[in-house]
Design brief:
The chain is an alpha/beta fold. Helices cover 44% and strands 18% of the residues. It folds into two domains: 2-118 and 303-316, ATPase, nucleotide binding domain (Nucleotidyltransferase, domain 5); 128-295, ATPase, nucleotide binding domain (Nucleotidyltransferase, domain 5, 2-Layer Sandwich), CATH 3.30.420.40. Strands 3-2-1-4-5 form a five-stranded mixed β-sheet, with helices on both faces. The chain has a five-stranded mixed β-sheet with strand order 8-7-6-9-10, with helices on both faces. Strand 4, helix 3 and strand 5 (106-110) form a beta-alpha-beta unit. Helix 7 (179-187) crosses helix 9 (234-260) and helix 9 (234-260) packs parallel to helix 10 (275-287). It binds 5'-O-[(R)-(carboxyoxy)(hydroxy)phosphoryl]adenosine and zinc ion (ZN). 5'-O-[(R)-(carboxyoxy)(hydroxy)phosphoryl]adenosine binds at residues 10, 136-138, 163, 166-167, 178-181, 184, 269-271, 273-274, 301-302.
Length: 335
């Protein structure tokens, strides 16, 4: 059973093909990074137009990579939300066209759920209950995936998403867009203890996160140094900022796991590609004898394989969408 997954929710035009829910056959990402870089962020209209141009060639490349033809595909999965509405519409319209013309079932995928479920391609069937930290450019939450596969939000950011904080600080440091991977790289040469940036809400007794104060603290420190005529060591700023973000996510997620009695911890979303986040979670979960589930880096950032994997699960559960499938820019993970 081959499912082709289409992802166009933000700035990657991506197509993946998955066989029998667990086997990855193709994963092709056409990134728009260079188009958006001059603006320092994703421009929605530019994204939608670029998806339109890149989608069909990306589908063709994925089919070649899988050694398959369109006539071999059994179902079409597509991200229906959350994301940029114009960008989502390109993928959903194309998926409907393919489903209609090839008489295939259509599967409407939740992008955030797909970030979690992609782990099945490397770890096999997920065996909830587990706690997941879902951290991307637009989303940051700690959720529990219950035994029946439903998600329950335990806490989320009350202001900036983790990826957004990485990207904003990177921009402030003069690093190219997208900033997350740049800070990750720069931080390796820096001292994470050089600056003591705030870890907000750490002891508030909830699983909520707040990252805007941290962002302000970094900016204020840079301005102070500038005014004092001090030359900031950017690698130290990057490392200390990253350490603060990682600390709050690590501490709150592991506290949630302990308090909910869950011994499996899953990391998902683009920020889960962060090397320091992965390292700290690996150390701590190993010390606690918890199982850590973390997809390889190309499966953490937006990709089509995750949509195909999540779509394959929907197909197996008989949850096809029909041609009336609507996009939902604010589709929640839980509920
Ligand atoms: O999941 P994703 O690819 O797209 C969304 O669904 O938003 O996440 C993108 C976010 C961006 O903010 C990007 O800077 C961040 O993930 N990111 C990283 C790293 N790689 C990507 N943040 C920190 N360290 C990284 N290595
Ligand atoms: Zn994403």
């Amino acid at each position: 059973m081959l499912v082709l997954g289409i992802e166009t929710s933000c700035d990657e035009t991506a197509v993946g093909i998955v066989e029998d829910r667990f086997h990855l056959c193709a994963n092709v990402v056409a990134s728009q990074t260079e188009l958006h870089a001059p603006y320092g962020g994703v421009v929605p209209e530019v994204a939608a137009r670029a998806h339109l141009e890149a989608l069909l060639p990306t589908i063709d490349t994925a089919l070649v990579q899988a050694g398959a033809r369109l006539s071999d595909i059994d179902a079409i999965a597509v991200t229906a939300g959350p994301g940029l509405v114009g960008a989502l519409l390109v993928g959903v319209s194309a998926a409907k066209g393919l489903a209609l013309s090839h008489d295939l079932p259509l599967l409407g995928v939740n992008h955030l759920r797909a970030h979690v479920e992609v782990a099945q391609l490397e770890y096999g069937e997920l065996e909830p209950p587990l706690v997941a930290l879902v951290v991307s450019g637009g989303h940051t939450s700690i959720v529990s995936m219950d035994a029946d596969g439903t998600f329950r939000e335990l806490g989320a950011t009350i202001d900036d998403a983790a990826g957004e904080a990485f990207d904003k600080i990177a921009r402030y440091l003069g690093l190219p867009f997208p900033g997350g991977p740049e800070i990750d790289r720069l931080a390796r040469e820096g001292d994470p203890k050089a600056f003591d940036f705030p870890r907000a809400l750490l002891h508030d007794g909830t699983y909520r996160l707040s990252l805007s104060g941290l962002k302000t603290a970094v900016v204020r420190e840079l301005r102070r140094m500038e005014a004092a005529g001090e030359e900031p060591v950017l690698a130290d700023v990057a490392a200390s900022f990253q350490e603060a973000i990682v600390d709050v996510q690590l501490i709150k997620t592991l506290r949630a796991a302990a308090e909910e009695g869950l011994d499996q911890v899953l990391l998902a979303g683009g920020v889960a590609a962060n090397s320091r986040l992965r390292e700290r979670f690996t150390e701590e979960t190993s010390a606690n004898r918890q199982r850590l589930i973390v997809p390889s880096v190309p499966l953490c950032t937006d990709n089509g394989a995750m949509v195909a994997a999540s779509g394959a699960n929907l197909y197996a559960a008989g949850r096809t969408a029909g041609l009336g499938l609507a996009v939902d820019a604010n589709l929640p993970l839980a509920g």
